[in-house]
Amino acid sequence: MAEKLLSRHNLAGVPVKAGDIVEARIDGAMSHYNFVEPVHQLAVQAGFPEGLPRVWDPDRIFILLDHHQPALSQELADANQLMRRHVERLGIKCFHDAEPGIAHQMMADYGLARPGELVVGNDSHTISYGALNVGSTGISRVDTLYVLLFGELWFQVPNSVKVVLEGHHPNYPIAKDIILYLAGKYGDDFAGSMSVEYTGSLVPQLSIASRMCLSAHGVEVGAKFALFPADERTREFLRGRTDKPYEPLEADPDAEYEKEIVLNVDEMPFMVAKPHQFGNVAPVDEVTGIKIVQAQIGSCANGRFEDIEIAARILKGRKVAKGVRFIISPASQQVYLQCLKAGLVEWLVEAGAQVVTPGCGVCQPKVGFLSDGEVCITATTRNYKGRKGSLNAEIYLAGPLTVAAAAVAGEIVNPREVFREL
Amino acid sequence: MSFDLNQVIRGRVWKFGDSVDTDAINPYYLYPTMEELKKHTMESYRPEFPKEVKPGDILVAGRNFGCGSSRPGLVLREVGIAAVVVESVSRLFLRNNISRAMPIFMAPGVSGIVKDGETLEVDYAQGLVRNPATGASVALRKFPPLIEKIFQSGGLLEFARQRYLAETAR
Ligand code: SF4
């Protein structure tokens, strides 16, 4: 699919193969708060004292305030203000300003990336839209400046790795367990600079939310693209969100893959990544008994309805363990609204969880810093040392169900031991 | 800021393991200014690094260097790192280095030929990195011509500027 994607977008108009360098036409560019500070500063550095002198197409640039909304400091409020000025000056039409949430979720919520397109963004998890069959990937800030000016960018055409997912989907989300299992078994760079293509009998059973979790985590296994086929679920998701036509990418039956990996989820245990690397993975049974003081669900990997719904379903009628801070952050306002309408927030708050503003806060040290010696289990993207403040804190990554179980038990447990109804 | 790919780089080695993340290289959430970053870069792996690193030193690391976010490793240049030589690098970190013309080289096997504190020599023209003390060397991966061109012109920013000026002069 990656060869087809980049052949289709090759400015030279000829088909390309893995390893080729192409200059490609970009369909859409996402930028979050970085648009102002780094990108603007770079423009000044490049000799444009007023900032970017133009943008290539004001309709294809999507600016979402994301990480910094609402402003957490005077400095950020001032930066946001500057951003508004530049967005207006450049005539950029799609600007989500007064709306908290994670840019990548909003890109999906508002149908801004469509199957078969080549979409870039100055954030590593831009790769998430692969869930919707979008060839999307993170680029550097200088790359972003280049794209904003010209609507073009160089790429090396990646090799592809095929991940075949088989088995039956249970009635709770397992996307996080899948990607942790793969990173543990094949290494946290098993897809290094490659395009991951998901296929197999499990794929039609995976919700768009679960696909976005897997695509987002493409970054944590090194991938350039993390693509799902466009199927009925994709079309249903996009209905009402976009009215522009699109042309999905399909893998050729004889497509060549650098690697092929098969996983049957029926045999997969609940998985946990231990501190401080994504690939430092173990089945949950090997880490049970570890006391935790903080549990979190959120981020561009796990802040979606199904992630919060499983926590709410499990917590209904139970209590968060004494002394545990259970922090939940919906990925966007749309997701938040959906959770509210379904009554989930009430169950969560009754059980002693905290629901905080949608956004990236829980994934970074912005909401819920950790102190020395504290242990946190989280359904977010990263467990690198210092990711939540102290270098002497420990972060475990797991799926939302395992996190909810730990929040109730006060320690890492196999969810089946807490929730017999599973 | 351009640099000449073909100039031999020689320096004292700081060694790191696999999957060094951008939160370690550039812990911007905790230290938003460059001055603070310089005092904390890489400390999650080696607390002495920010205190003892000297201009001209070379950073050697294992596979998957710079995994994680899209944040660049500018701070490494600011503390004086002359080159980063790794077994393999995350794609986004590599893109960052190319677009800012910051020297980074992929040399599978490099971890095996040099110890922490020894001297390493990077010879892009010859396509190898070597340990002058032991004579051991491994090949480094050459960049495609377009990437060499971007390096040579001082990064993608300079490229962008020249292209824009050329387009608007017409
Ligand atoms: S949720 Fe975390 S990983 Fe995702 S975009 Fe925000 S900060 Fe980055």
How are the elements arranged and paired?
The complex is a heterodimer of chains A (422) and B (170).
Chain A: H1 2-9, E1 21-25, E2 28-31, H2 36-45, E3 61-64, H3 74-90, E4 94-96, H4 103-109, E5 118-121, E6 135-138, H5 141-150, E7 152-156, E8 160-166, H6 175-186, E9 195-199, H7 208-216, E10 225-227, H8 232-238, E11 259-264, E12 271-273, E13 281-283, E14 294-297, H9 299-302, H10 305-315, E15 325-328, H11 333-341, H12 344-351, E16 354-355, E17 375-379, E18 394-398, H13 400-409, H14 415-418
Parallel strand pairs in A: 2-3, 2-5, 3-4, 5-6, 8-9, 8-11, 9-10, 14-15, 14-17, 15-16, 17-18
Antiparallel strand pairs in A: 1-7, 12-13, 12-18
Chain B: E1 9-15, H1 22-25, H2 34-40, H3 49-52, E2 58-61, H4 74-78, E3 83-86, H5 91-99, E4 104-106, H6 110-113, E5 119-123, E6 128-130, E7 137-139, H7 145-152, H8 156-169
Parallel strand pairs in B: 1-2, 2-3, 3-4
Antiparallel strand pairs in B: 1-5, 5-6, 6-7
The complex binds iron/sulfur cluster.
Iron/sulfur cluster (SF4) is lined by residues 102, 104, 123, 125, 299-300, 360, 363-364, 381 of chain A.
Write up this protein.
The complex is a heterodimer of chains A (422) and B (170). Helix content of chain A is 30%, strand content 18%. Chain A has helices at 2-9, 36-45, 74-90, 103-109, 141-150, 175-186, 208-216, 232-238, 299-302, 305-315, 333-341, 344-351, 400-409, 415-418, and strands spanning 21-25, 28-31, 61-64, 94-96, 118-121, 135-138, 152-156, 160-166, 195-199, 225-227, 259-264, 271-273, 281-283, 294-297, 325-328, 354-355, 375-379, 394-398. Chain A has 14 helices and 18 strands. Chain A has 2 domains: 2-262, Aconitase, domain 3 (2-Layer Sandwich); 273-418, Aconitase, domain 3. By secondary structure, chain B is α/β, with parallel strands linked by helices. Chain B has one domain (9-168): Aconitase, domain 4 (Alpha-Beta Barrel), CATH 3.20.19. Chain B contains 8 helices and 7 strands; from the N terminus they run E-H-H-H-E-H-E-H-E-H-E-E-E-H-H. Chain B has a 7-stranded mixed β-sheet with strand order 4-3-2-1-5-6-7. In chain B, a hairpin with a 4-residue loop joins strand 5 and strand 6 (128-130). The longest helix of chain B is centred in the last third of the chain and has 14 residues, at 156-169. The two termini of chain B are 27 Å apart. Chains A and B meet through helix 5 of A and helix 5 and helix 8 of B.
